[in-house]
Write the structure tokens for this entry.
Amino acid sequence: MQEKIKNYILEVEGFIPSTEEHLEEFRLKYLSKKGILSDLFLEMKEASPDQKKDLGKVLNELKTKAEEKYSTFKTSLENNKEEVASDKDLTLPSMRYLGSRHPISIVRSEIVDIFSRIGFTVSEGPEIEDDWHNFSALNFPEEHPARDMQDTFFIQKNPDIALRTHTSSVQVRVMETTPPPIRTISPGRVFRNEAISARAHCIFHQVEGLCIDEDISFADLKQTLLYFAREMFGKDTKIRLRPSYFPFTEPSAEMDISCTLCDGKGCNICKHTGWTEIMGCGMVDPNVLTNCGIDAVKYTGFAFGMGIERITMLKYQINDLRIYFENDVRFLRQFSGIV
Ligand code: PHE
């Protein structure tokens, strides 16, 4: 009997099942109620007490080996089965959610596209600026309220350095380094020390434009902005220029577009006027040209500046600009697919 058991042990050790059925045959043969092990334990009962001790030892060895073999292959065959059953092609692209661009980025590139079609280049500059580029070169008098601590984030130890409050600072840099003709827009992030509300934030984005050449007139400014408004808000959009004041332009104006929601009939968004303001603009003040080393007798130019948040609000009917900064995916997902 001893011999017989040892042969079974060898057989168990060499057993490698290829399928689940094959493993089941093994279980029935050795481990089931009518299997070899049960038979052998019954047989052992008839042996003499001396023999029982030795037989018990080898028989238990056979039992442990058969059980281990069974459980090891059971789990590995099951895992294989799962892999086959899933039948997934892991190289396919994900179809669940493609992600989306932030609405501010979408509108920023739309603005850039519109102006590049009429020959404007894109220029960028630093977000931390000195007084000269943000204020002085732009003809801000020393005591101008926009320099006040209320509007500007100054660097504590050096009042000459501040976070730029508009991207007109980039235009100063362009004028200082590029001889006319100049036709450029400067998109970028700007900072103002304002209380955060549905209509204002301390960080926002602007696109400012600058065009300098011989014989540039207010008519060129008006036509450029009309082209922009129609491209951005639709071909029936009307524009209106109202006199205004900026230190760096003379004359200066604020531009309204006919309300995109009510087509100029009057609604809550346009406060029943039929118009909404979208940007400031004007003819570059000759002092600014001179400050930047450009011959103010030979050259004239126009400039304009708008907030991307505001344009986006009008374009997508968003009524609170704080939502741009909240990263709420329910908001962001609505822009999926727009590039
Ligand atoms: N820099 C102005 C602002 O930030 C906008 C502007 C640009 C106005 C150019 C006129 C001309 O509000």
Summary: The longest strand covers residues 203-213. Residues 49-86 form the longest helix (38 residues). The chain is about 40% helix and 20% strand. The chain has a mean pLDDT of 91.
